[in-house]
């Protein structure tokens, strides 16, 4: 890391100076710690504040940077008043009044992604979308490794972007959320994609239009735009004159699916890359994810044969259409990562036959009526749980039978009685998990535990 060059870039772009500037890192957690370590290496003055009494990462911060000032249990107004720059973690809304007042007093917002961009000259591939971004990010990382590249993979997924710098990679693949993108201005990815846009985080974004606008920022710059032409919101983001590759599972595109009498193939133009049957992932929406990854890989010059080899070996991520077990002929699938309507709809549409759906949790302000067509078409019945179970029941308006469960174990027991041999039970909540669980992983783990208990009884 060239400290002098990075310091000069920060001064040029953000008027950030090691001698006179005072940076306040707002929100701890993994992102906050990565920012603190980065600023410490550069020799900048900084402090950290978090609204929680015992924020995650506090012990780790104490071990790594024992002298770093940390204010917890609320946002300290004095810290905001003296700050010249704010680095606000994605989990903290920019509409927080302490942040709004600091900006009004002249404080400048910097994102960890902007810091990362200024700290590396290696090409960056950036991936966002309401659904599938973790899967595509991981697949592309595997493809790059299979092509012989030294690659750093992270961002919103796994390792924070700034911590990837220690790897001195020749290529970085970043998953970026709408919250990261809304406060980022310097990103110029070599290739970027918005996989899809559906209702999500409307408790933080004022409207779908605003949410889509934040996602679109991933295309800033002059890199190759990877466009999902099956999604009208994403298609409208296309910029004339920019290098573009398209993908589709419904129609012809640069990367698409082609049916033959005996099979279906992932195609690049007239070239058949691999059979869809070789893709070891549940659901047709994962065919779209595979095509997106292939398009991104071609855009940055990865070897096609190596990319297809990586796809054949990719078994999927935990809690994302994860095959858990087959019990008495019933397939149990964990899609706990489906924390919004679009993810649940995509999961349902990946099935040829009807499923028993387990859904519910915190709807985050979304209109659950958008679930109704997919449930009517693809669900045999639904088992509802969590804070907004009643909202879903009202939205589907009796189009399929609905049952209520107090917790995951009861939901699994009910689903086991409803499902018959040859059918699937799908946990795809369409909602966030924090009303009942630590996170979506905890929710998925509880599902797996309950399903495994069924297996013992079988």
Tell me about this structure.
This protein is of the alpha/beta class. It has three domains: 3-110, Rossmann fold; 115-313, UDP-N-acetylmuramoyl-L-alanine:D-glutamate ligase (3-Layer(aba) Sandwich); 322-457, Mur ligase, C-terminal domain (Protein-Tyrosine Phosphatase, Chain A, Alpha-Beta Complex). Helices cover 36% and strands 20% of the residues. It is built from 17 helices and 20 strands. It has helices at 3-14, 29-42, 58-64, 77-82, 97-104, 112-119, 133-146, 178-182, 208-216, 232-235, 285-299, 304-313, 341-349, 372-378, 389-396, 408-418, 440-457; strands at 22-26, 45-49, 70-71, 85-88, 108-110, 124-128, 151-155, 171-175, 191-194, 224-228, 244-248, 255-259, 264-268, 271-275, 322-327, 330-334, 355-359, 379-384, 402-404, 424-427. Strands 7-8-6-9-10-11-12-13-14 form a nine-stranded mixed sheet. A six-stranded mixed sheet has the order 15-16-20-17-18-19, sandwiched between helices. Helix 16 crosses helix 17. The protein is globular and about 70 Å long. The protein starts with a helix and ends with a helix. The model has no long low-confidence stretch (mean pLDDT 93).
